[in-house]
């Protein structure tokens, strides 16, 4: 009955009215929207069950409060009630598991031929993004962006395209996280490659972070996701393939001045415009 009721409601509207019930809002992928809807529906179901249980508790407190010294009727068990409070939780868990499995399967689904493949390489303490000509380790890198001690790396991607991320690390475990995706995936060293796909549905600039404590400068291991139209992305990639730097390629697609660099680093200002963000005693070749 609850699921039927919720199907006629806007979960996005309900979530916005209550600040997402603790879940971040403003997802920029269909996968993020599905996870958000699952969270809102689960919280509403939990609240309905909770209010029902609280109601029964307070009803028992009032209805069966002590009115004298006479003991109430003593019973050993009530079979219908025992069946009810055994079967009901099992049904609730089964329904939640069913919808969780559906959403999780959808989030982890890989297409046969993604539109764009990006290899994400994490290392202490920066990122490298390799634009590949196909999925898989046998594919070739056609262009690359490497973060340095002076410049935060930009990951430029188009809106409305299936994008496959293939992650690997050169040293320790990192974690690729763009908060607006409402999703993160660990980056492992060795032959383990985490692979996932998203479709970005909103243009804009979004901060990215490492979400796994990986060492001394973990907090500064940031990047910026720049989502543009497919036409601007094609021009950006063409400029990169032709030998332009990432900042020069950003200029080709209309970004000027500081817009060619990372501008979304809040709350940690690591804009690195020609000034090292490491301490004086830090390794000189961290970006390599």
From TrEMBL:
It is found in: Cell membrane; Membrane. Signal peptide: none annotated. It catalyses: 4 Fe(II)-[cytochrome c] + O2 + 8 H(+)(in) = 4 Fe(III)-[cytochrome c] + 2 H2O + 4 H(+)(out). Its main location: membrane. InterPro entries: CcO_II (IPR045187), CcO_II-like_C (IPR002429), Copper_CuA (IPR001505), Cupredoxin (IPR008972), Cyt_c_oxidase_su2 (IPR014222), Cyt_c_oxidase_su2_TM_dom (IPR011759), Cyt_c_oxidase_su2_TM_sf (IPR036257). Subunits I and II form the functional core of the enzyme complex. Electrons originating in cytochrome c are transferred via heme a and Cu(A) to the binuclear center formed by heme a3 and Cu(B). This is Cytochrome c oxidase subunit 2. It comes from Actinoplanes digitatis.
């Amino acid at each position: 009955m609850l699921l039927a009721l919720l199907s006629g409601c806007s979960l996005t509207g309900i979530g916005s009215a209550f600040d997402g019930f603790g879940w971040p809002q403003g997802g920029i992928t269909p996968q993020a929207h599905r996870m958000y809807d699952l969270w809102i529906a689960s919280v509403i179901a939990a609240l309905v069950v909770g209010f029902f249980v609280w109601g029964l508790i307070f009803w028992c407190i009032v209805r069966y409060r002590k009115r004298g010294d006479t003991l109430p009727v003593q019973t050993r068990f009530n079979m219908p009630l025992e069946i009810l409070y055994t079967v009901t939780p099992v049904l609730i868990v089964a329904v939640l598991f069913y919808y969780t499995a559906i959403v999780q399967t959808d989030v982890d689904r890989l297409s046969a031929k993604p539109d764009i493949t990006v290899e994400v390489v994490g290392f202490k303490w920066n990122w490298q993004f390799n634009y590949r000509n196909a999925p898989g380790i046998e594919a070739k890198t056609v262009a690359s962006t490497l973060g340095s001690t002076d410049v935060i790396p930009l990951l430029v991607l188009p809106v409305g395209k299936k994008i496959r991320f293939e992650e690997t690390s050169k040293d320790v475990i990192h974690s690729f996280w763009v908060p607006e995706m409402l999703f993160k995936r660990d980056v492992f060293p060795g032959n383990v490659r985490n692979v996932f796909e998203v479709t970005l549905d909103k243009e804009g600039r979004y901060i990215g972070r490492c979400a796994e404590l990986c060492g001394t400068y973990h907090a500064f291991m940031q990047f910026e996701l720049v989502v543009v139209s497919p036409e601007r992305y094609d021009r950006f990639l063409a400029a990169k393939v032709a030998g332009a730097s990432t900042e020069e390629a950003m200029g080709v697609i209309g970004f000027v001045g500081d817009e060619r660099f990372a501008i979304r680093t809040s709350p940690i200002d690591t804009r690195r415009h020609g000034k090292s963000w490491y301490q004086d005693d830090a390794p000189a070749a961290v970006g390599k």
